[in-house]
Amino acid sequence: QVQLQESGPGLVKPSQTLSLTCTVSGGSISSGSYYWSWIRQPAGKGLEWIGRIYTSGSTNYNPSLKSRVTISVDTSKNQFSLKLSSVTAADTAVYYCARDNSGYDLRSTYYYYYMDVWGKGTTVTVSS
Amino acid sequence: SSELTQDPAVSVALGQTVRITCQGDSLRSYYASWYQQKPGQAPVLVIYGKNNRPSGIPDRFSGSSSGNTASLTITGAQAEDEADYYCNSRDSSGNPWVFGGGTKLTVL
Q1: Who contacts B58 (Cβ-Cβ below 8 Å, separation ≥6)?
Q2: N or C: which end of chain B has fewer CB within 10 A?
Q3: Mean pLDDT, to the nearest integer, of A7-23?
């Protein structure tokens, strides 16, 4: 059973770069047709998708964060990583990594997408 | 602002049925998926696709979709179902993901 674990500094200074890593265990990050996402959640607020990566290196980013976000993958380590630059207090949140899965319903001809595996999350505080 | 709209809060009496809705233009083309999040925990997938439950999710959880609205129904709500529920799907611009603002479910 695939499991995800986030890791990285819990405290980042304003204007610096937040760096987190998600380690995939119980399976290869390269097996199957999965994307791997980062999501964050400020305290008391909702979920915000940050971006995702395919094992080929192809990425998609939330337009509202795109200028500051870089997501990369290291298949040899079974990890993918997030870098968020020029952070402010507004970037303080719990950061989750998750696996993107997908399917197709033949009858309705709808595609469907879902995040079926999540890490436990890691809290990052931006403060001097 | 979210392109998927959810009611901020819903309540249900113990053992009764509750429907949580998610509205958005992208839902005319894509199914929503639904996540349950309890305090201090990561979200857990409860419904995906037309009406699919991951292993371990009780069959009192079900999903449906009509037009621009997706619904999560809990039939016979239990105390342990009290949680925040989020929907997500593609957004109307084709970006991979957008989340609804979440619905806080209270079981009375």
Answers
A1: none
A2: N
A3: 97
